[in-house]
Amino acid sequence: MRGARGIAMTASEVFVANYDSILRYDLEWRLIGNISHPHCADIHDIAFRDETLWVASTLNDLIFQFDCNGDVKEIIDLWKNRGIAAIFGVPKNIRERVNGTGDPRAPDRALTDRFHLNSFEFASDGDLILSLGQVRVNGHFESALVALGANGDVRVVHRNSNAPVPSHNIVLLPDGTLLHAETANARVIRVDTNCENGVSTVLETNGGYTRGLCMLKSGQAAVGVQNEVWVFDPSSGHVAQRIRISDDARESVHSIVVMNG
Predict the structure, then answer these.
(1) Are 84 and 77 in contact (CB under 8 A)?
(2) Element (H, E) at 20
(3) Residue 238 pairs with which residues in a beta bridge?
(4) Is there a contact between 233 and 247 (Cβ–Cβ < 8 Å)?
(5) Of residues 108, 61, 119, 54, the one with CA closest to residue 88
(6) DSSP 8-state assignment for residue 58
(7) Region of 195 on the Ramachandran plot (φ > 0 left; ψ -120 to 50 alpha; else beta)
(8) Which parts of the chain fold into alpha helices (H)?
């Protein structure tokens, strides 16, 4: 186990991702189940939508959809999408699928984790927005947000040409724009997917590791900045509160969710 990762909630359960499985708890934090698959590994963001648990399997660049019994309903495989491979020039002859349930240090990530698919969001027009946190091609590192249509068509909605560390989470705002934790540049950006130059910086995080992002019931947003959670206005970027979760600066937030109740 390498620490808790993505987290999702329903009216009666809490799902918490580990490296290669999702633990199911009731609202009293009693363990009631476990969901896993041999190719589901290095899990990042998860979400529960339409009676389906969606899971980003980052090691293999897969999106899993599990039903409420933990059975696989569908798998979205980015390696089979010719549009994404063509856009980012990912070589086809050096990829392999790995079983993620063993030692996480064992797979050669240069052969597996090609896009670092780590987050997703459901756009109002039906597209699935994906965070390709760190695209690795011939020593060049960048990140991108892409929109995946129901027919498999792909379009880039944001591309960051310099990503020495992966970027992360995506959140849909009520007006249809996106907030994105662009970790590589230590900032939160707003992205208008329908505008060619629709990217603006909302919040600079002063070099802190920027990961974990969610909207609050108040209309504010929360983002993880290293070992703190910052509460801020998603329109102005004004920081209303900084909450330290650990005195160890080596700790960093992975996921933030609003609890029911």
Answers:
(1) no
(2) none
(3) none
(4) no
(5) 61
(6) G
(7) beta
(8) 82-88, 109-112
How far is Cα of residue 133 from the mean position of the Cα atoms in its chain? 8
Domains, the chain: 7-209 (2.130.10.10)
pTM beyond 0.85, yes or no: yes
CA distance 123 to 2: 31
For 1-116, strand residue ranges (E) read 7-9, 13-17, 22-26, 31-35, 43-49, 52-57, 62-66, 72-77
Residue corresponding to tokens 């994906």: 130
User: Phi then psi for 47, rounded to 5 degrees?
Assistant: -155, 150
Q: What is the pLDDT of residues 9-63, one digit of tens each?
A: 999 999 999 999 999 999 999 999 999 999 899 999 999 999 999 999 999 999 9
Sign of CA pseudo-dihedral 79, 24, 19, 172: positive
> Are the C-beta atoms of 192 and 129 separated by less than 8 Å?
no
From the centroid of its chain, how far is CA 201?
19
Residue listed under structure tokens 């979205």: 76
Paired strand residues for 179: 171, 190
